[in-house]
């Protein structure tokens, strides 16, 4: 656990970057520091590995004041990932990743072996090992940055806007991979970003800082969205709080129906039988169970294959039942011209469909359940927020 | 007779290839002066340029020194030194040659350190590298191509200018030019000039090879 105890940082020119900040960063989880530009996120992060020394206050790592520890040993026990990766341009990818193990005195063979393992772990092809950083894309460089930080298996990982310089699609992928890696490794991660969506996606806990380096709120993402502490946090969260909060509601309990589903090889009679369930639309799947599109029952009088696949009504983007959230399910229903969402399993086969009405019911139920739970958690988070003596 | 005939006659005359006034001996002297001047210049300019580039201090003073150094006429300085301190060893010729080599080395080594990307340096410190390791394992390897290019300019200028040593009765390839001129032996003048030009070109080659050997492909400027 990293305990930040009322630290203040006043730079030489008088700028107060962090003002009397106290935080308890729990082990084996991702804590995100988020806030507008210049609010002191980087300064806070860099005080944890002593790249910046606080003007007052102290930071404890597992109960030990980090100020009492040899600075380079402390830094070697914390992975550090920065924007644009900061790779060593004169070293190969493999050598970059092996840097900290080599500094810790590992022999070359062991360090390189470890580096290859990490390349695999962060999703880099082993053919890139002998390349130099300039021969990699921004996204690949960022993966190398993460691998380099993980190389000596440090318990703590400090990440300062690691994904902000890559395009939105690559960023999504990298976020997903970080979550996957975290699931495997369970590091104590402090992650800085100014992107609230990234914070909500990645954070187990989120610290929202306001300009002037003050803590505005420290809470789990779901609580942040449902109970913003004040107007600043609410404003920072932006529009669509309610809908975004649905990302924390699982689609597992959503009631699905298979009544309006017909396979492409269904006969006229089978179609008529399905249409009797007075569904306004039928979902046509291929013989393998993958969705093709919606059709009105009366257009399928010659059997399910009477409408060419290309002329079926789009089914939007299906959601994976149980794994995706209610937000994905709702999004899917809203995107489809028929107003119905298609649920698939992890192989892409249809498991059922749900109407906007059904999804609305599920949302109301989930809200009721979460209500009680969230107020418990909000008080727990508030308890973790130490008040300066 | 044209210039190329002079040069080829000079180079193919076997009497020019041995003895005290032969090409090997003169070349050896020439390279000796040049190397010595370059080594002294590097010993002075590299530490100053690298340190001030690393710390970011003294850049203005350095620019003034470099500009002043560039404005010094080498030949004028040589004559001045010769009359002032006389012919004490190589001193009168070393001073102008060193003064010639210092500015490019000083300026480029300063620039080389200034322009090192701060991100890898920050990353290196953040992962627990000490100051010496950051300097020798990150900053210098990254700055090396630019440092070498300063050394190369200095080497080319010194090799070309070392010919002036002959005007104060020292050796080197300049002897052919000075002596040939007084003897109205244009074959010797042209031959000496050609050898000096070739030597300057050879410097380009030497530094190209040096770069291949000591600079990481990741930061080679040809990328
Ligand atoms: N070395 C420094 N000297 C003086 N002031 C500084 C220094 N570093 C940062 N600051 C100031 O401290 C404040 C906080 O800076 P910091 O870099 O921590 O912000 P940030 O939240 O990371 O911002 P961003 O999202 O833009 O990266 C800013 O006002 C900044 O100008
Ligand atoms: Mg920052």
Automatic annotation (TrEMBL), chain A:
One of its GO terms (molecular function) is ABC-type quaternary ammonium compound transporting activity. Residues 2-237 form the ABC transporter domain. SUPFAM superfamilies: CBS-domain pair, P-loop containing nucleoside triphosphate hydrolases. PROSITE patterns: ABC_TRANSPORTER_1, ABC_TRANSPORTER_2. It comes from the Bacteria. It holds the Pfam family ABC_tran. Keywords: ATP-binding, Nucleotide-binding, Transport. SMART domains: AAA (SM00382). It is an enzyme of class 7 (translocase). Its EC number is 7.6.2.9. Belongs to the ABC transporter superfamily. This is ABC-type quaternary amine transporter.
From TrEMBL, chain B:
Residues 27-207 form the ABC transmembrane type-1 domain. One of its GO terms (cellular component) is plasma membrane. Pfam families: BPD_transp_1. Keywords: Membrane, Transmembrane, Transmembrane helix, Transport. It is found in: Cell membrane; Membrane. GO terms for biological process: glycine betaine transport; transmembrane transport. Gene3D superfamilies: MetI-like. The chain crosses the membrane at residues 31-50, 62-84, 90-107, 128-148, 154-177, 189-210. CDD domains: TM_PBP2. Its main location: membrane. It is a multi-pass membrane protein. Belongs to the binding-protein-dependent transport system permease family. This is Osmoprotectant transport system permease protein.
């Amino acid at each position: 656990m990293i305990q930040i105890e009322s630290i203040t940082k006043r730079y030489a020119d008088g700028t107060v970057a962090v003002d009397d900040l106290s935080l308890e960063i729990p082990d084996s989880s991702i804590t995100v520091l988020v806030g507008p530009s210049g609010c002191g996120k980087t300064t806070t992060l860099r005080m944890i590995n002593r790249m910046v020394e606080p003007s007052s206050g102290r930071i404890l790592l597992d109960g030990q004041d980090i100020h009492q520890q040899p600075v380079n040993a402390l830094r070697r026990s914390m992975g550090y990932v920065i924007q644009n990766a900061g790779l060593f341009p004169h070293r190969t990818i493999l050598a970059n990743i092996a840097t900290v193990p080599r500094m810790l005195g590992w022999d070359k063979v062991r360090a390189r072996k470890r580096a290859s393992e990490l390349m695999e772990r962060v999703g880099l092809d082993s053919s890139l090992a002998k390349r130099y950083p300039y021969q990699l894309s921004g996204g690949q460089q960022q993966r190398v940055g993460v691998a380099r930080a993980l190389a000596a298996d440090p318990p703590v990982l400090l990440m300062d806007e690691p994904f902000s310089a890559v395009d939105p699609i690559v960023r999504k992928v990298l976020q997903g991979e970080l979550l996957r890696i975290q699931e495997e490794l369970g590091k104590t991660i402090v992650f800085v970003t100014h992107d609230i969506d990234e914070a909500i996606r990645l954070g187990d806990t989120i610290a929202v800082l306001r300009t002037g380096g003050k803590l505005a709120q420290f809470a789990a993402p779901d609580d942040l969205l449902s109970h913003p502490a004040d107007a600043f946090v609410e404003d920072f969260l932006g529009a669509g709080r309610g809908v975004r909060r649905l990302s924390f509601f699982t689609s597992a309990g959503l009631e699905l129906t298979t009544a309006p589903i017909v396979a492409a090889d269904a006969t006229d009679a089978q179609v008529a039988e399905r249409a009797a369930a007075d569904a306004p639309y039928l979902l046509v799947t291929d013989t393998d169970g993958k969705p093709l599109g919606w059709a009105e029952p009366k257009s399928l009088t010659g059997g399910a294959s009477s409408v060419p696949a290309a002329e079926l009504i789009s089914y939007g983007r299906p959601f994976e039942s149980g794994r995706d959230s209610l937000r994905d399910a709702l999004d899917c229903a809203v995107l489809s011209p028929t107003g119905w969402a298609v649920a698939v399993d992890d192989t892409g086969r249809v498991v059922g469909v749900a109407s906007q009405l059904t999804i609305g019911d599920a949302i109301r139920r989930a809200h009721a359940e979460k209500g009680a739970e969230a107020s418990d958690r909000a008080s727990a988070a508030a308890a973790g927020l130490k008040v300066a003596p | 007779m044209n210039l190329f005939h002079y040069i080829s006659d000079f180079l193919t005359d076997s009497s020019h290839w041995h003895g005290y006034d032969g090409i090997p001996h003169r070349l050896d002297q020439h390279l000796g002066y040049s190397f010595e001047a370059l080594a002294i210049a590097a010993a002075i300019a590299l530490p100053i340029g690298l340190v001030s580039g690393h710390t970011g201090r003294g850049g203005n003073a350095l620019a003034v020194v470099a500009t002043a150094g560039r404005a010094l006429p080498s030949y004028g300085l040589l004559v001045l030194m010769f009359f002032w301190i006389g012919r004490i060893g190589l001193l009168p010729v070393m001073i102008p040659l060193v003064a010639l080599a210092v500015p490019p080395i000083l300026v480029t080594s300063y620039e080389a350190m200034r322009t090192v990307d701060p991100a890898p340096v920050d990353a290196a410190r953040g992962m627990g590298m000490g100051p010496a390791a950051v300097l020798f394992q990150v900053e210098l390897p990254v700055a090396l191509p630019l440092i070498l290019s300063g050394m190369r300019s200095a080497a080319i200028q010194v090799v070309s200018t070392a010919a002036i040593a002959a005007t104060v009765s020292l050796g080197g390839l300049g002897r052919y030019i000075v002596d040939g001129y007084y003897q109205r032996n244009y074959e010797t003048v042209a031959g000496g000039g050609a050898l000096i030009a070739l030597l300057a070109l050879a410097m380009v080659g030497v530094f190209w090879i040096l770069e291949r050997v000591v600079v990481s492909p990741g930061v080679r400027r040809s990328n």
